[in-house]
C-alpha cells in the first residue's frame, strides 16, 4: 500500500497512478508551453516571509468570512470541471468534503453531478460558477436552478471566451463527458460535435460558450439573479476598476490555473495591483499554484481575503475520494496554522503586507 501523503504535492503522484493518462493530463495540463503553469508555482517560491517574534500564538484563529459567510479558514475549493472523471462520486464527494472542512465549494458549470444532487448531498454554503452559453436561456436556467437550490453566489468566469490551447488534450483527443445539468437542455449542440481530431472539449466550448460577452452583459446577469456576483479571471488593475464600477460583489484574481492564455503572469504577482485598484470596496480572492500553507499566508499578506484551490482537490479526489479532498484541505489548513504561529500572527488580521517580501523589494 502506498504511504499516506504528508503534503498536498504528494497527491499528484497518487492521482497519476489512479487515473487513465487522458484524464490525468487533462487535470494537470496548462496552455501551450505551460510557461504560466510553472510560473504560478515558482512565483510563490520567490516571496520571502518576514516573521515577527514574541507574540502570543498560543491560540490561532484562522476563521474568516466571504460575502458574509463564515468559514473555518480562508481556503476554499475552486470550480473545476468533470469530477466524475476523477472519482465515481464526483462533485457530491467534493461538496461533502468541503462541508466537513467547514469551507465553501464553488461548483463548476461543467460539473458531472447535477446542481440538485450536489445541493441535497450536504447543507454547506456553496457558490455556483457560470460560463455564459451562446443560448442565454440555457445559462439563465442553470443560474436559476442554482439559486433555487440554495447556492449563495455566482462566480462568473470571464477568461474563457474560448478554451486555451491545451496540447495534451489535443494529442489525447480528450472526450467531452455527458453533463447531467444540460440533459434535455442542449443535446442537439452536444451531439453535433465534430472532432475525430483534437480535443472535443475545445469543440464543445467553441460551439457553446458565448464569445461575444462584454461588460454590458453583467446587466443581463443581474437581471436573471438576485445572488451576489463574483467575477473570476481578472489579472489587471484596469479590469479590477471596471469590475468594481460595474458593481460586482467580489473579484477572483485568476489565470484559470494557466489553462487559458500562456505567458500571463503568475496570479500572486498581480494580486497586489488588483488589491490596490479595488481599495477594499469588495473582497479579492486569488487562485493558481497554491500548494502550501505558506502560499496561502503570502496571498493573505498581499491582500487576498481568501484563496481557491484547484488541482490539489482533484488529485485528492482521484486518489481517495471524499477523504482525499478533506485531507488536502486539512493539510493546507494545518500548514497555514503553523505558518501563522511561526510568523507571530494569532489571527488573520495580524497578517499584513510587512510579513511578505517580493524578490524585487530591497532588503530593509
Ligand atoms: C479548472 N478551472 C475552471 N475554472 C472555472 O471557472 N470553471 C471550470 O469549469 C474550470 N475547470 C477546470 C478544470 C481543471 C481540470 C482545472 C485544473 C482548472 C480553473 C480553476 O477554477 C482554478 O482557477 C485553477 O485550477 C486554480 O489553479 P490551481 O490551484 O489548479 O493551480
Molecular structure report:
Its cofactor is FMN. It is an enzyme of class 1 (oxidoreductase). The longest helix has 33 residues, at 311-343. With 364 residues, the protein is of the alpha/beta class. It is 41% helix and 12% strand. The protein has helices at residues 10-18, 21-28, 35-45, 90-100, 115-121, 136-148, 167-172, 187-191, 200-208, 217-224, 237-246, 267-278, 293-301, 311-343; strands at residues 48-49, 64-66, 69-71, 75-77, 105-107, 126-130, 154-157, 229-234, 250-253, 284-287, 306-309, 356-357. The chain is built from 14 helices and twelve strands. Helix 4 runs parallel beside helix 5, helix 4 packs parallel to helix 14 and helix 13 packs across helix 14. The chain is globular and about 65 Å long. It has an eight-stranded parallel β-sheet with strand order 4-11-10-9-8-7-6-5. It has a two-stranded antiparallel sheet with strand order 1-12. Bound molecules: ligand FNR. Residues 27, 40, 78-81, 108-110, 129, 157, 232, 254, 256-257, 259, 287-290, 309-311 line the site of ligand FNR.
What ions, cofactors and ligands are bound?
ligand FNR
Residue share in β-strands: 5-15%
Terminal CA distance: 49 Å
Structural class: alpha/beta
Strand order of the largest sheet: 4-11-10-9-8-7-6-5
Secondary-structure element pattern, one letter each: HHHEEEEHEHEHEHHHHEHEHEHEHE
Helix count equals 14
Taking pLDDT < 50 over at least 5 consecutive residues as the criterion, the unreliable ranges are none
* Main beta sheet strand tally, sense and closure: 8 strands, parallel
User: Residue-averaged pLDDT, rounded?
Assistant: 95
Amino acid at each position: 500500500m502506498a504511504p499516506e501523503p504528508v503534503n498536498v504535492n504528494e497527491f499528484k503522484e497518487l492521482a497519476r497512478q489512479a487515473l487513465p493518462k487522458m484524464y490525468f493530463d487533462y487535470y494537470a495540463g496548462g496552455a501551450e508551453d505551460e510557461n504560466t503553469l510553472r510560473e504560478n508555482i515558482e512565483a510563490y517560491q520567490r516571496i520571502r516571509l518576514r516573521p515577527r517574534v514574541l507574540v502570543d500564538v498560543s491560540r490561532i484563529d484562522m476563521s474568516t468570512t466571504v460575502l458574509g459567510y463564515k468559514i473555518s479558514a480562508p481556503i476554499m475549493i475552486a470550480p473545476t470541471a468533470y469530477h466524475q472523471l476523477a472519482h465515481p462520486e464526483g462533485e457530491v464527494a467534493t461538496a461533502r468534503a468541503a462541508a466537513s472542512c467547514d469551507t465553501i465549494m464553488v461548483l463548476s458549470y461543467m460539473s458531472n453531478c447535477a446542481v440538485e444532487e450536489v445541493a441535497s448531498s450536504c447543507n454547506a454554503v456553496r457558490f455556483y460558477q457560470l460560463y455564459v452559453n451562446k443560448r442565454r436561456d440555457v445559462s439563465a436556467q442553470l443560474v436559476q436552478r442554482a439559486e433555487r437550490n440554495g447556492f449563495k453566489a455566482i462566480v462568473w468566469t470571464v477568461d474563457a471566451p474560448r478554451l486555451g490551447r491545451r496540447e495534451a488534450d489535443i494529442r489525447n483527443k480528450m472526450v467531452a463527458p455527458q453533463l447531467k445539468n444540460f440533459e434535455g437542455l442542449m443535446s442537439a449542440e452536444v451531439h453535433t460535435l465534430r472532432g475525430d481530431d483534437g480535443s472535443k472539449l475545445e469543440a464543445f466550448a467553441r460551439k457553446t460558450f458565448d464569445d461575444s460577452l462584454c461588460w454590458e452583459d453583467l446587466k443581463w446577469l443581474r437581471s436573471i439573479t438576485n445572488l451576489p456576483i463574483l467575477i473570476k479571471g481578472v489579472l489587471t488593475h484596469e479590469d479590477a476598476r471596471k469590475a468594481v464600477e460595474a458593481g460586482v460583489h467580489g473579484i477572483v484574481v485568476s489565470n484559470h490555473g494557466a489553462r487559458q492564455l500562456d505567458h500571463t503572469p503568475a496570479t500572486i504577482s498581480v494580486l497586489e495591483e488588483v488589491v490596490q485598484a479595488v481599495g477594499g470596496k469588495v473582497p479579492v480572492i486569488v487562485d493558481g499554484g497554491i500548494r502550501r500553507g505558506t502560499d496561502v499566508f503570502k496571498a493573505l499578506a498581499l491582500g487576498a481575503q481568501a484563496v481557491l484551490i484547484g488541482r490539489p482537490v482533484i488529485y485528492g479526489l482521484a486518489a481517495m475520494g471524499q477523504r482525499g479532498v478533506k485531507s488536502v484541505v486539512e493539510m493546507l489548513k494545518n500548514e497555514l496554522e503553523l505558518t501563522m504561529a511561526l510568523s507571530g500572527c494569532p489571527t488573520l488580521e495580524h497578517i499584513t503586507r510587512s510579513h511578505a517580501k517580493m524578490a524585487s523589494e530591497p532588503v530593509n
